[in-house]
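Could you help me review a protein record that somebody else here produced? What it holds is a sequence and that sequence's fold in token form. I need someone to confirm that the token line plausibly describes how this chain folds. Take the sequence as given and treat only the tokens as open to question. This is what I was given:
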Amino acid sequence: MVAIFKSIDKNGKQSLHEQLLSQFVGLIQNGILKPNQKLPSSRKLSEQLGVHRKTVVKVIDELVLQGWVVTKPAQGTYISEKIKDYMPKSLNGLKSVSSGIRRFDIPDFKKNIGQPVLTVEPYHFDDGLPDPRIAPLKELGNAYNQALNERNPYKRLAYVSTKGSLRLRKAISGFLNESRGLAIGENQVMITRGITQAFYLACKGLLREGDFAAVGALNWQSANSVLLNQGIQLLKLEVDEHGIVLDKLEDYCKKYPLKLIYVTPHHHYPTTVIMPAERRMQLLQLSRKYGFIIFEDDYDYDFHFAGTPLFPMASVNPMANVLYAGSFTKAISPGIRVGYLVGDENFIEHISIARRMVDRQGDEILENALAALIEDGIIGRCLRKARRTYLARRDFFIHTLKSDFQNEIQFQTPEGGMAVWASFDQKINMRELAKKTKMKGLYISDGIQQQSNLNATRLGFASSTEEELAIGFEILKSTLK
């Protein structure tokens, strides 16, 4: 019997009693020690395992108390017969998800979600991320400490509204009204942990399995993943130089009970193009006619370089069927997980109830710190500074692409945002290129998360200085030779 036990570590953190008891229970639960099986005597077990007999007796007594074994007078000690109905019978039909863990047939989330973008190389042409070096991190830290150390810690650190900090909701409603032409109050705002959560909660509150939603054929894959993993059927729309093409949308509405359309009209993801005013008005008209919701993801409204940006569709008063989402990711850093969802007051109340099932509330201390930065004008100044910095980096980036990569990469100069939509020559294997540049210290996406056959990807410029971009270009150039 000793062969089925693991070696006992006499110098381990667990006592010998705990180690031996744990091993006995594990052997019984896994069916290695079977019901009615007789155990050797305590003396023999002591000799075989190399532990004191008193320890073995103590373990046996504990097993009896817990119901794992029984003692029969003049016969010995046996594994309890009563546990046989609860022993594992067969592992057939179960699917392994990792070593030592088995499961029944549960939803396969992985098949509908792409690989996360983790940029760790010294140089990077990323997906279009901000540069945290120019973010107001010091000011945020000071504001956080102040919010954390305000009087009455019981109240300050208590449960609060699932909608988020009232102070931040007021600050955001004022900020959006002033900068984006909205006309909302704090009760139309819910603070989220970013746009992904905002979209997930909106879909959870609006849609049911089997419903229909429309997306661009080229789209943010995280949005597609949220929909697919909720059992939503996707209706895909062509994307051209002005964003999502609406020609087929009315046909879809007549054929299917469309519930929602997901759009990024300001800078379409991933292509960065802008949906013109007339197309936006057409989309709003179709929404009113057929009753579907427009989810407007405005992930980088603040970074527009060519003239005055178009106001969001959510600025139409009343908002009607528009849900509007944004975040502080682009203003500060992806690590600052604070975003917002704006919509009809009744709907926001409905979604806040749904949120309680998965996320009781956000980080109110962080939310109040961000509110202070908005109130003091720090976020506004940071955005203006970042816009100037990113414009200079964009101009350097596109100048280098035009001068050094005209035969390998085709693109249109983005009017805003933090990335270029770059189409590589069909002779270039994007996957191999990404692997080789990574080995040299430059991250670029292989485009696989776009799930298209265009041999294209986003090349971000905002998070790197011109000197860093230049080094990245040298790596890319040497790899393409």
User: Anything to note?
Assistant: The longest helix spans residues 378-404.
